[in-house]
Amino acid sequence: MHKTALLFSGQGAQKAGMASDFARDPRFDDIFEAAGDICGFDVRAACGDAEALRDAYRVQPALCAASIASARALALEGLEPSCVAGFSLGQVAALHAAGMLSLVDTFRLVDVRARAMARAALARPGAMCALSGGDEGDVVALCERCANGDVLVPANFNAPGQVVVSGDAQAVRRAADAWKALGLRATMLPVAGAFHSPLMDEAAAEVAAFLEGVAFAPARIALVNNVDALPLEAARAREQVAAQVRMPVRFAHSVSWMRAQGVRFFVECGSGAVLSGLVRRIDASAVRYRASTWEEAVSAARACAPCATEGDIR
After folding, report:
1. Span 202-229, mean pLDDT?
2. Beta carbons of 2 and 312 less than 8 angstroms apart
3. Where are the alpha helices (DSSP H) in the chain?
4. What is the model's pTM?
5. Are strands 263-269 and 287-290 parallel, antiparallel or unpaired?
6. What angle do CA 239, 245, 249 make, to 5 degrees?
7. Phi/psi at 3 (nearest 5 deg)?
8. pLDDT computed for residue 29 by the predictor
């Protein structure tokens, strides 16, 4: 018997038409209506609108709503996971799935977080680049060598052999050129700012200020935190959720930690298969499912439900 984890998609996984099965079902109305009321636009419609999903702000509430709907579909099909985790934006949806935030507070957080990050990116534009083919130590050394007084840091530890760096645009380009000179692959990412870097300090401060008025409940099921790849405690949630805006996403470490706790089945909620692909690279023996549609949710729940009752992770 093995445990099951839900994984929540990060920005970049969105696709026009996502959550269409759930958006037509009245059992999910409260999700899309709460998102729309708080964020000020028709989130249900945005999930099906390619132009809306290209908007740096609207994509975040839409993807969060799709992710929460996906997790609810799994619950309706009888799946009870042992733990949850999200990638960057996905961690906000995971907070709701873990029972730590109400639906309203989840979308309030999405709204504040998205706007704060957009303002920070506008105030000091940056860049991000995916580096493939080296290990974490190689990337850390590269950042130290190429910073030259600018901000340049590892931002996303995606999987073995893939780390994203973030910082001032000129420093990121220097790092990309130096990486390519080693015969390795460097891919600039189409992002608006240097997320998960010190260039997001102001955004993190805005999120922290907002969270002073938010109550986090103890996790109903373990939420494996991006910042330290360990279960998030309610007492530290304000600090950790704010820090996540400017700290690296330790996704590879999170999946490895979950595997060590007996998690074998991973179900990706939201849109696409980005996280499923990363899980395969982290541990090819892990079993991966998606739940972007009703059909996928039913299939995943049937496959995982006999294994999901093995016990919670604490």
Report:
1. 97
2. no
3. 20-23, 29-39, 43-46, 50-53, 59-76, 90-97, 103-123, 136-146, 169-181, 201-211, 237-243, 251-260, 274-282, 294-308
4. 0.94
5. parallel
6. 100
7. -90, 160
8. 97
Hey, what's the torsion of the CAs at 50, 55, 57, 60, to 10 degrees? 30
Each residue's pLDDT tens digit, 56-84? 899 999 999 999 999 999 999 999 999 99
1: confidence class by pLDDT, cuts 50, 70, 90 = low
User: Is residue 82 within 8 Å of residue 308, measured between CB atoms?
Assistant: yes
Q: What is the pLDDT of residue 35?
A: 97
Q: Is the separation of the CB atoms in 82 and 56 below 8 Å?
A: no
CA distance linking residue 163 with residue 179, whole number of Å: 12
Q: What is the pLDDT of residue 24?
A: 94
Contact 270, 8 (CB under 8 A): yes
List, by residue number, the catalytic residues.
Answer: 88, 196
Q: Which residue, chain included where needed, has tokens 């790849």?
A: 229
As a residue count, the chain comes to 314
Is the pLDDT at 138 greater than 70? The verdict is yes
Q: In this structure, are residues 207 and 242 in contact, taking their beta carbons and an 8 Å threshold? A: yes
Q: What is the mean pLDDT of residues 164-188?
A: 98
Q: Residue 298: helix, strand or coil by DSSP? A: helix
How far is it, in rounded angstroms, from Cα 155 to Cα 182?
Answer: 21
d(C-alpha 118, C-alpha 3), whole Å: 37
CB 184 within 8 A of CB 133: yes
Question: Do residues 87 and 8 lie in contact, with contact meaning Cβ atoms separated by under 8 Å?
Answer: yes
Integer angstrom CA distances of residue 126 from 56, 172, 190: 15, 8, 11
Nearest to 143 by CA among 158, 122, 128: 128
Distance, in Å, from the CA atom of 26 to the CA atom of 32, rounded to the nearest integer, reads 10
CB 228 within 8 A of CB 236: no
Q: What pLDDT digit, counting tens, does each position of 259-313 carry? A: 999 999 999 999 999 999 999 999 999 999 999 999 999 999 999 976 544 455 6
